[in-house]
Each structure stands twice: as C-alpha cells, then as structure tokens.
C-alpha cells in the first residue's frame, strides 16, 4: 500500500505584468518549475501545472490536481504573484499544501540586472500567499531552502510523505469486528468528531460476517497461503494441519471483507470473537501478516490505534502495532509487546520469524498460531493518538532506540525493548501527563519530525516527550 511515491502537483504562481517587461519570462519560469520537479524526482511523482497568472488560471489548475486524486500541492512562486488571486482557492482547497520559499539563483551577485531581480523575487510573493492561507485558517508547511540542496529534497520529501498520509487518512475507513473492549477508556472516541475533524470513519462488522466469509474461502486459497508461509517463515512442527487451515481461512476471509468494503484498517477484540461461540481461535497471525501487507490494525476494538498504524505505514513505512508492557530500569528501557499481533516486517534480520503454536487463555479458545520475532535493534519512534474531547486531538511521540537485548525465552509474542531518548523516567512522566494511550504505532527510524508535519497538516496538537 505504501510502495508508491507521493503524487504531488506543482502550482507555479506569477503575473502577466512581467510579460511585457521581459518577453519570454513565462516560458523561462515554467522551465524553472520543471527543473525543481526534476530535482525532486526521487521523493515524489510530480505533476507540473502551467504557470498561473489569474484567479481563473489558478482555480482551473487546482481543480485538475484534485480531480487527479493527488496527495498534495507544492506551491512555487515563479515571480511575485498577488495573493488575492489565490486567496479563495486556498480557503477551499482540500489538498495539503507546502509553500516552497525558493528562487532560481542561490546568491545575489554584482551581475544581476532588473530581469534577474524579477526572476528571483518569489520571496515577497510567498509572504503574500502565506498571509492569505493564514487568514483563511488553512494549515500548510513552508520550506525555505536553496532548491538544489539535499536539505531541500529532504524537507520536501518529509512533507510529501506527510501529505500522502494525511490525504489517505482523510478517506480512511476502519472496520471493527464486533465491539470495543468494555471499560477500556483510552481507546474511546467520539466517532462523529473524529470523522469531522480528521477524516477516518469507524464502522462495525458483525462476527457472523467473518464466520460466513470463512466458509466461502476455497481450499486452494487456504493451501496457497500455507505454502507461502512455509516458504517465508520458520513454521512450528507442532502446529497441526487443522490449526493452520483454520488460521489461514480466517486471514483470507478478513482480507476479503476489508477489500470488499473499502477498509484499509481494522480491529478485532478477543471477547467479540470468543463470545460469539462459532470460532475456534483468535486471528492473531492474520493481524501480523495483514499489517505487513499495509493494513492498519488495533487490538481490542481500538480503531484509533488501527488508524495510527495505517498512518504509520503511509508516513514512514512498516507501521507496527504495540504497547508498553513493563519498564526495565537497569537498561532504562521499556518492554514493548502485545498479545501476539505485530508487523513482522520490523523483525530482526539475523533471526527467522517463527510461526509458532502457543497456548493463550485469553478468549477461552484453542491455541492461536502466532508470529514470534524480536524487533530490529536501532532507531525507532512511538506515536499515540489521544482524543481530548470534541474535535481536539493530540499526538504523543517518543523517539529512542530498540536495544539489542538478550532473548526472553518464555515470551511467545513479538517483542523488543525500547529505550526512550529522554530516558524512561522523563519520557513516561511526560507521556502520562500528555494522556498518551497504551496502544500505539512504532516505526523504525527517528521520524518525530515527520509526525510533526503530519500533525501540522491534519490539525492535531503535537507533543514530543
């Protein structure tokens, strides 16, 4: 789901006044816009619109970007352009915007004449345009850089990924199989407020739909999935054919429901599955592989966490659902794990991912096949979405390192020890004060800056701890 580059429109703004003063300026500056897009070819796929000089031009180009389902718009001032021509456009635009405060030449030299001044005068057009967006109350990002620099590509790339994530998030549908865990407070959210403010939509799927779906899965689809697992993972010989077939049938049925109903994220609650009375086991392994395929996931009916894992896929790749299990003060780290669900794409590369037989009393069902792996050591980031009531949301983010710690032989689920950059004591004090939830998404790498841009574009308060 996240292999494609962000698709970004380039809106180049100027005005007709300069056509009479400098013949050919439009063609020259249009070429400059294409050069900028070519320089950024590795961070996004760009659609470069023609230079816009009037309100009608700008609104026509923007409609084209929206109709093409692009992820965002990069605004480049080709010369000064009066903001009143784009003020209404930016008040109505639904795509994330980045204002590139750049100019063709990086340095003012003694050789400059009036033409050079005109070619490079984008800064005051950027001020006028930014002022229009501020007045309209529209969120936008700004990048002031030499457009040929690596820093420019890095910053635009970060914004483009955030734009892709926010745009996808606004159309996200989260399916909850059954219901959310009773009395679990930090996963609760006003669904109407979430939809209005941020875009994700939550709906509920009857467990009976999954039961019927399992019976519609053909035997060859089950056999194909099991053969793929045999080739990809170390499979526990204690797992019976019947156990694996039942797990595979559940996974195929879940994915078909997600696909058919347009869900890109989902949640299952063990009680909703266990109390139904028709299922033999929990779909834990299914959650791991579906996360690895790019679906968002949250346990226990946690639609917010499922939406966050989906956003983590879009923003930084390979979102991993997890929670803080216990603190380890000697190593200044936190044991991260969950009941059995985890994205095996974040596993250590020097150890096989195992599909194991394990006993689990939760749900009062038969043994669920479960993926067992340790999270890859190195930089990592945690992010938790907090509902503050009404349409107010906060993202709590912590950067740190996954430690290379000894194996915990009795732990039969995905795990790793996360050492916050600010230390366990300081991090957890701040996390709890901020209301950080107990379910979260982990991404490999330090991506707090990416989450900050995501929050700026989505209208979420950002809190790094």
TrEMBL record:
Alphabetical UniProt keywords: Arabinose catabolism, Carbohydrate metabolism, Isomerase, Manganese, Metal-binding
Gene Ontology CC terms, in alphabetical order: cytosol
CDD domains, sorted: L-fuc_L-ara-isomerases (cd00578)
Pfam families linked: AraA_central, AraA_N, Arabinose_Iso_C
UniProt cross-references to SUPFAM superfamilies, sorted A to Z: FucI/AraA C-terminal domain-like (SSF50443), FucI/AraA N-terminal and middle domains (SSF53743)
A molecular function GO annotation: L-arabinose isomerase activity
Coiled coil spans: none
GO biological process, one term: L-arabinose catabolic process to D-xylulose 5-phosphate
Domain L-arabinose isomerase N-terminal per the UniProt entry, residue ranges: 43-169
Domain annotation L-arabinose isomerase C-terminal: ranges: 319-461
Record-annotated L-arabinose isomerase central domain positions: 177-312
PANTHER family per record: L-ARABINOSE ISOMERASE (PTHR38464)
Protein known as: Arabinose isomerase
Organism: Marinitenerispora sediminis
Classification lineage: Bacteria, Bacillati, Actinomycetota, Actinomycetes, Streptosporangiales
């Amino acid at each position: 789901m996240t292999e494609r580059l962000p698709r970004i429109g380039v809106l180049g703004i100027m005005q007709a006044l300069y056509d009479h003063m400098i013949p050919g300026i439009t063609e020259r500056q249009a070429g400059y816009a294409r050069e900028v897009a070519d320089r950024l070819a590795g961070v996004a796929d760009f659609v470069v619109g023609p230079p816009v000089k009037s309100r009608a031009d700008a609104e026509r180009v923007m409609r084209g970007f929206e109709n093409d389902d692009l992820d965002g718009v990069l605004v480049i001032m080709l010369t000064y352009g009066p903001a009143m021509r784009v003020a209404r456009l930016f008040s109505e635009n639904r795509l994330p915007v980045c204002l590139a405060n750049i100019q063709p030449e990086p340095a003012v030299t003694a050789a400059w004449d009036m033409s050079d001044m005109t070619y490079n005068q984008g800064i005051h057009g950027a001020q006028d345009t930014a002022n229009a967006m501020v007045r309209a109350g529209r969120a936008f990002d700004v990048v002031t850089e030499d457009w040929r620099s690596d820093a420019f590509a890095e910053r635009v790339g970060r914004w483009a990924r955030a734009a892709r994530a926010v745009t996808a998030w606004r159309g996200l549908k989260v399916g909850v199989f059954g219901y959310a865990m009773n009395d679990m407070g930090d996963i609760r959210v006003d669904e109407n407020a979430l939809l209005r403010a941020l875009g994700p939509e939550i709906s509920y799927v009857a467990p009976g739909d999954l039961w019927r779906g399992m019976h519609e899965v053909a035997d060859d689809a089950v056999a194909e999935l099991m053969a793929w697992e045999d080739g990809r993972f170390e499979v526990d010989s204690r797992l019976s054919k019947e156990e694996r077939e039942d797990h595979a049938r559940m996974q195929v049925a879940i994915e078909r429901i997600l696909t058919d109903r347009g869900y890109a994220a989902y949640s299952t609650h063990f009680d909703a599955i266990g109390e139904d009375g028709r299922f033999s086991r929990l779909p834990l392994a299914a959650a791991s592989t579906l996360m690895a395929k790019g679906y968002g996931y949250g346990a226990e009916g946690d639609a917010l966490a499922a939406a966050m894992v989906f956003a983590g896929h879009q923003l930084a790749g390979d979102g991993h659902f997890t929670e803080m299990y216990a603190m380890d003060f000697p190593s200044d780290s936190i044991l991260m794990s969950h009941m059995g669900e985890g994205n095996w794409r974040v596993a250590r590369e020097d150890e096989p991912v195992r599909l194991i037989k394990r006993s689990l009393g939760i749900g009062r069902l038969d043994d669920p096949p479960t993926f067992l792996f340790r999270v890859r050591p190195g930089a990592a980031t945690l992010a938790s979405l907090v509902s503050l009531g009404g349409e107010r949301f906060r993202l709590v983010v912590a950067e740190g390192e996954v430690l290379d710690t000894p194996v915990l032989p009795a732990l039969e689920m995905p795990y790793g020890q996360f050492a916050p950059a600010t230390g366990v004591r300081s991090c957890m004090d701040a996390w709890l004060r901020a209301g950080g939830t107990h379910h979260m998404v982990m991404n490999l790498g330090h991506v707090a800056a990416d989450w900050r841009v995501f929050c700026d574009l989505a209208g979420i308060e950002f809190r790094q701890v």
